[in-house]
Amino acid sequence: MTRRAWVRLDNASNIFLAARNDIDPKVFRISAELDHEVDPGLLQQALDATYERYRLYHAVLRRGVFWHYLQDSDLRPCVTLEDQHTCAPIYRPDRRELLFRVMHHRRRIILELFHALSDGTGALWFLSDMVEAYVRLRHPRQVPGPGQVPAQNDDPSDAPAAGGPGSASAGNPHTEDLVQTVHELTTDSFTHYFRRRRRQEPAGADADAGARRPAPVPADRPRNPRRKPRTKVYRVTGTRTPDNRPRTVELTMPADQALQLARAEGVSLTMYLTAVFFESIRLSSPGLGRARTLVASVPVNLRQFFPSTSPRNFFAIVRVAHTYDETTPDAADPGPVSRELERRFRPKATPEALEKSLRRLIRFERMPVLRIVPRPVKDVLLRLINWISNRRLTVAVSNLGRVTLPEPADSHVRRMLFHVSAVRPQFCAMSHAGLLTISFTSPFTQTDHIREFARTLTSRGVDVTVAAAQVTEDELKESRR
Q1: Where is the stretch described as Disordered (predicted)?
Q2: Antiparallel, parallel or unpaired: β 247-254 and 465-468
Q3: What is the longest distance spanned by two Cα atoms in the chain?
Q4: Helices 269-284 & 255-265, crossing angle to 10 degrees?
């Protein structure tokens, strides 16, 4: 019997696996909107060709005594019509199935993945290669120009997660001569970079560090007299959707108009949009009460600091917060909030800060005591840790940045869209062909915060169009008429 290749799940994937539930099955979607109706036969050929170069995507999820692992398989994916709601569950423990699906709907090519398999950057690589293969089949006489590869984006906050869902091409495996890379079922990049011993310090470093080390704190003196008491984090509540499908609303706008607002404040686009999100939550809430601190999780693509061509999960989460006081005006003003968020975000998103945090996490995960704990017990512990973490979050944001596809695909793709299943209000952003799409997802039917978000942007000169999916019984009945 042939032995199949396998690898253990990385630490991020283990959390996704343990934390999934009916409301948030840890699935995310990336779509490309073409300039014509999708030909499913050609799309299947493109999927087959791309699938051969992504061995990771051949994997199925298996359960061991002490851990989950990915194992190679002989399964083949099939293109289907979009016949279920967005981000429907993919992983089912009792079935041996692939961890992604490819669908089409009118002009859209849709890729959905279980987040334990890959992150937003890895999924974008797969979708980009598949769309390029599809357009080559449909337009065989069009020749790509030299060096047509996804554009760089050096903003560390414009990164995925899903997120899930990074920049469009940080660590992109494509080369300038478009050599097709084969993505093997490899060890995760977390282990490669953060499980090794620390890099050796230069001679004299210890002495210098000792000279700079602060004097010990007396035992009778508080260790941190300036430490503030923990603030109460505001959490959004609402009416759950009837069948746990996410409420999805898409905002589309000219990318340059949104960028001008961010540049005017001297901040990244992600931090500006996060500030608008905070203002929208505040204005649409019945009142913050004592919970006046809003906290957002922002995924950072680690490939821009630690080169990796693996499409497996390789990102870190940075949290940013803002506390409103009782004198905050009723009108939305994202400027001051965005500048504070930028100031808080930047020090946390440096390679040194990220490495320190991730090494600590890896050390905890590799503790001998935890390694011998059976897998079901580990899942319970991870689920509890995730639950505690969620209680200190208000929203989540993720930005895949500006995407440029290789020609001839780029000129045939219009909007590109990205969104995730969500246990709390969240938005995902990406831009292509000069259009920025911001996709909101939420487990609640209410959309007041999205209305305030759009109003804030339009009042500042941004042309916003809105499209919403039906989720309530009345909306679904109306759509069937």
Answers
A1: 142-174, 199-231
A2: antiparallel
A3: 79
A4: 90
Tokens 């006489």 — which residue? 141
Cβ within 8 Å of residue 199, ≥6 positions away: none
Contact of 159 with 168, CB cutoff 8 Å:
no
Cα atoms in the Cβ-side hemisphere of radius 13 Å centred on 121: 33
Determine the Cα–Cα distance for residues 28 and 23; give it in Å rounded to an integer. Answer: 13
Domain hosting residue 120, numbered range: 6-150
- CA atoms of 273 and 269, how far apart (whole Å): 6
Q: Token pair for residue 27? A: 């699935």
Return the H-helix or E-strand segment holding 46.
helix 40-52
Domains in the chain, number: 1
- 305 found inside a domain: no
Sign of the torsion angle spanned by Cα atoms 73, 76, 77, 80 = negative
Q: Give φ, ψ of 81 to 5 degrees.
A: -70, 150
CATH number at 43 reads: 3.30.559.10
Side chain identity at residue 464, one-letter code: V
The secondary element (H helix, E strand) that includes residue 69 is: strand 68-71
What does the alpha-carbon distance between residue 105 and residue 299 come to, in Å, rounded to a whole number?
A: 29
Structure tokens at 189: 């990049």
Q: What is the 3-state secondary structure (H, E, C) of 375-419?
A: HHHHHHHHHHHHHHHHCCCCEEEEEEEECCCCCCCHHHEEEEEEE
Report the alpha-carbon distance of residue 245 to residue 236 in Å, rounded: 17
Say what the pLDDT of residue 334 is: 95
Residue 451 placed within a domain: no
Position 35 pLDDT exceeds 80? yes
Distance (Å) of CA 141 to CA 32, 136, 137, 145, 408:
22, 8, 9, 13, 10
In tens, the pLDDT along 251-292 reads 999 999 999 999 999 999 999 999 999 999 999 998 888 899
* Mean of all residue pLDDT scores within the chain: 83
The CA distance from 34 to 80, in Å, is 17
Is 441 inside a domain boundary? no
Distance CA 117, CA 99 (A): 7
Residue 234 DSSP code: P
Helix (H, G, I), strand (E, B) or coil at 278: helix
Residue 170 pLDDT greater than 50, yes or no: no
Nearest one of 415, 390, 442 to 86, comparing CA atoms: 442
Specify the 3-state DSSP secondary structure of 61.
strand
445 inside domain:
no
Residue 144: burial class (beta carbons within 10 Å; 0-12, 13-18, 19+): middle
The CA distance from 321 to 343, in Å, is 11
